[in-house]
Amino acid sequence: MPPIPLPPLPTITRLASVTVVRHGESEANVRYRRAVETGDVSVPEGRAEDAALTRLGEEQAAALGRWSAGVGDGPELVVCSPYARARRTWEIAAGEYGGRAVPPLVVEERVRDRENGVFATHSPPAWRAADPQEWARRERSEEWTYRPPGGESLADVALRVRALLGDLDAVAAGRRVLIVAHDAVALAVAYVLEGLGAPLPDRPQVANASVSTWHNEGGRLVPGVWNSTGHL
User: Fold this and answer.
1) What does pTM read for this prediction?
2) What is the 3-state secondary structure (H, E, C) of the chain?
């Protein structure tokens, strides 16, 4: 008789809550969508880390700040990705706090976006044109475990997010934490907080400036809202 797997073993933590928001719309998001629609195979110069927010992304960041400042139990610590689009999102959001105290900020490498290695700034059409064999390998692979040359899989992102959540439990026990990051990080947080042995996430892409929340019940962070954009 085959062994019966246990349900996920819950992640125990002393954090009061965790909220993850994705950065506002970036210029890279717009280029990506247009490339998929038109088949454009051009590759922009510069680093993926430096992509700026669009005007809409700045408006989304301001709306996010008004929401965060108006929440009764707002964040007590902000952990932000080092990428320009995430840091600018929080900079604009923090400017909406008015006379309220802005929570302290930590810029943390472990909530950076998923690294796509040599294809960091490639859209799908550009990637396919640049290396058809690698694109075919990507298409054959599981999304959660595929690792592009020089890059990361989503499983790799989950490993660094798991380590970060453990460290936050040690240094920010009892505090409400806001993570300003990327869609891959939101997926990884959701997966890690499901507990050891959790099934792989099957969730839609996380929207720009969306909010996902978990709150502490009996030592476990349980989900509240996922990918919410009502504040926009």
Assistant:
1) 0.95
2) CCCCCCCCECCECCCCEEEEEECCCEHHHHHHHHHHHHCCCCCCCCCHHHCCECHHHHHHHHHHHHHHHHCCCCCCEEEECCCHHHHHHHHHHHHHHCCCCCCCEEECHHHCCCCCHHHCCCCHHHHHHHCHHHHHHHHHCCCCCCCCCCCCCHHHHHHHHHHHHHHHHHHCCCCEEEEEECHHHHHHHHHHHHCECCCCCCCCCCCCCCEEEEEEECCEEEECCCCECCCC
